[in-house]
Amino acid sequence: MEEAPRMIHLENISKEYDGATVLSDINLYILKNEFLTLLGPSGCGKTTTLRLIGGFEYPTTGRVIYEGKDITDVPPYKRRVNTVFQKYALFPHLNVRDNIAFGLKIKKMSRGEIDRRVDKMLSLVNLAGYGKRSVDSLSGGQQQRIAIARALVNEPDVLLLDEPLGALDLKLRKEMQLELKSMQQQLGITFIYVTHDQEEALTMSDTIVVMNSGRILQIGPPKTIYDEPKNAFVARFIGESNIIRGTMVHDELVSFSGVDFPCVDAGFGENVPVDVVIRPEDIVIVGEDIGQLTGTVTSVLFKGVHYEMMIDAGDFTWKVHSTTMQPAGSRVGLAIVPFNIHIMRPMKEDVAP
User: What is the pTM of this model?
Assistant: First the structure.
């Protein structure tokens, strides 16, 4: 499958505030019609990256390239992007329709064209018939949709979204995740989304960019980021993980907890230290007599779709997710198939790329 053309390229971007480095040598390209998510903890640089793309900030070093042209010094109003912030910043003195139409009126569009576009947006965000309502009379989710409609009505090539679901309750947030992805697919435009919520990133994205301490740690599709984290920070931040030190005996054989395990990884060398990552759902509880490892269940939590059990195997306490519960105090065996063992090089600092 042919890759879509590159729309935006952040080239060797660094950003400092009062001598403190916020972004350090960022290199990132974003494809046309891609849903790309910048994911990371608070203070990692993801919002600064978004603001650089929008033109609200200028890099200390590096360039912002848009469809082959350097737009580093181009102000926000001259860029073909629109932004939706967590605080929707709707105009309380204007009704829903006038809030959406505001940017079009500034551009002095004809009344007919304004009405056509606003009607289209109200339908897209499932708020047809709400045009004459006061924005203060709307729920948080409805206000969020109006903010998105106001940005999209200008028909930008790129929509920037800075944690737009953060103020919503859990149920509404999950609904809006699906709606946002549906809107992006219907409109066929590029979405660049900022969040610290791994579930949002995994649910909506074509590509996830994991960031920490002003650096990009890994870029890839959601499944690759989840199944093949490049370092311990990514493994811990995306989902839950058991991470244990081991030794790569040779290609496709790793040793940890005093046991040799077949795996599918190669190219690490022989008898070298490694980090071993195993997801809780990838460990199977079996009889004590047939497990590769054995241990004692120390705690059990019901999580709704599965049980979370902590199992003390002596040198390491394993977190295991299973639909079958074993009571605390039980002795059990643990079985791990080769494909579910992921090998990483040990790192002195999780923030290193």
Answer: 0.85
